[in-house]
Amino acid sequence: MSRLIVVSNRVAPIKPGKVAAGGLAVGVYDALRQSGGIWFGWSGEVSSTPQTNTETVGEITYVTMGLTRQDYDQYYRGFSNATLWPIFHYRIDLARYNRQEYDGYRRVNGMLAAQLKPLLKPDDIIWVHDYHLIPFAEECRRLGIRNRIGFFLHIPFPPPEILTVIPPHNDLLKTLCFYDLIGFQTETDRLAFQDYMTREVRGILEKDGSLTAYGQNFRAGVYPIGVVPDEIQELAESSQRRRRPMRRITDVERKKIISVDRLDYSKGLVERFKAYEALFDRFPEHRRGVEFIQIAPTSRSDVKTYQHIRQQLESEAGHINGRLSDLDWTPLHYLNKSHDRRVLTGLFRDADIGFVTPLRDGMNLVAKEYVASQDPDDPGVLVLSRFAGAAHELTSALIVNPYDCIGMAEALDRALRMPLAERRDRYEHMMSIIRSADLDAWRDTFLRDLRAFSSRPKAQVQASPLFSV
Ligand code: GDG
């Protein structure tokens, strides 16, 4: 069996149970833990003399390297997080473009490919993750690496009208064609990509479903990322058992709403806080009867737009509690730090509502984790944004538009009143989907397709005249 080499921007030597906040880390770690292999990427260190480190923990060998300050500023803070992230989340208003940053992005991809090359065996399968590494395969081909290389995009893929705002969109998307297989979270994302390839650069959709563009033939497919439901259920149960004696601080039993997100403007936190406030204005009978716990660990705190969203949220949270709190009721608990995974699943299980309302999200694992944590006999209700990839699968959630605060408040009211039989029906439907499209299915179908697709040789970076465009 060929080895699996996972390449992602960030690699943290993760000890069992100490998983970093972030969907990619959670998903990749769980996938590699089962198959074994190499996890290759940036260590998170920034230094003038970057080092490479190798560490094996269990079945996984972590190979990590540092970045210089210039690499970090241009590749990570710059083009990846100030250009690609906002644009791929449909936020042209928050994006900026700087040519030096794009050059740095290309340079770091080249440097990473060169560092990976000596570690490779001819039949290794390489699986590259996310928007930081779009040009990685082209750099590998340039170095003569002929292994199968697949790419999975964890975030949404925007429609061409938005994508083409990025000045070097052609150059960037051309590099993507050097992968053998490109995976997306939803059909909407795959179609947007196909639309770009066929309309914007006159690529060809072949009879066998593959695409030919820029002289390369490749496949694009849909692989919704999943979770490990049994493990989550066990964690949630054991955590709830441990916490029960400490649960009641006062004698009042209140309904609980939970949200967990990296602190990011794509997650719709400001709109969510406003919707929560609107719940008490429209349905005053819920006052004092509900508590909302928002856990939002800081992320990318040195990118300006992230500092701004943090200030906005602090002010909104202060406003809600200032306006509504009483001596024995704090309506909103806004916790700006990360928590242990076990604690999170316990909070999910305890909560009557999982409130997951991103403005745009590739998938959103929290939605699936919330459902998987529930007590099957007395499950809570998931209120889910239509713009999360998860809404394509979890159609039995209460689906909301995250731009409509009153609509979200109405959904909260409905969830708070929902009878047990309806909660169970919705839960069972969602659980059957979460079980059949779990994390193993995500990894296995992607890797099966990558192995199966025998693409044309990709060792040449120059376009061949045999192909169109
Ligand atoms: C990207 C895409 C896509 C959060 N806080 C803590 C913590 N978490 C865990 C959650 C969940 C993960 O981090 C977050 O995953 P999401 O999917 O919700 O969101 P992103 O971080 O934006 O992930 C997203 C994902 O990649 C996978 O493809 O779904 O669309 O944006 O697992 O539980 N974990 C711990 N403490 C925390 O405080 N331990």
TrEMBL record:
Instruction: Please provide the Gene Ontology terms (biological process) for this protein.
Output: trehalose biosynthetic process
Catalytic activity reported? D-glucose 6-phosphate + UDP-alpha-D-glucose = alpha,alpha-trehalose 6-phosphate + UDP + H(+)
Look up the EC number in the record and give it: 2.4.1.15
Per the record, the pathway is: Glycan biosynthesis; trehalose biosynthesis
For molecular function, the Gene Ontology terms on record are: alpha,alpha-trehalose-phosphate synthase (UDP-forming) activity
Entry keyword Transferase: yes
The family database entries (CDD domains) matched by this protein are listed as: GT20_TPS (cd03788)
Record key words, sorted: Glycosyltransferase, Transferase
A Pfam family of this chain = Glyco_transf_20
Protein family? Belongs to the glycosyltransferase 20 family.
As for what it does, the entry says: Probably involved in the osmoprotection via the biosynthesis of trehalose. Catalyzes the transfer of glucose from UDP-alpha-D-glucose (UDP-Glc) to D-glucose 6-phosphate (Glc-6-P) to form trehalose-6-phosphate. Acts with retention of the anomeric configuration of the UDP-sugar donor.
What quaternary structure, including any partners, is listed in this protein's UniProt entry? Homotetramer.
What name does UniProt use for this protein? Trehalose-6-phosphate synthase
Organism, as annotated = Pseudomonas saudiphocaensis
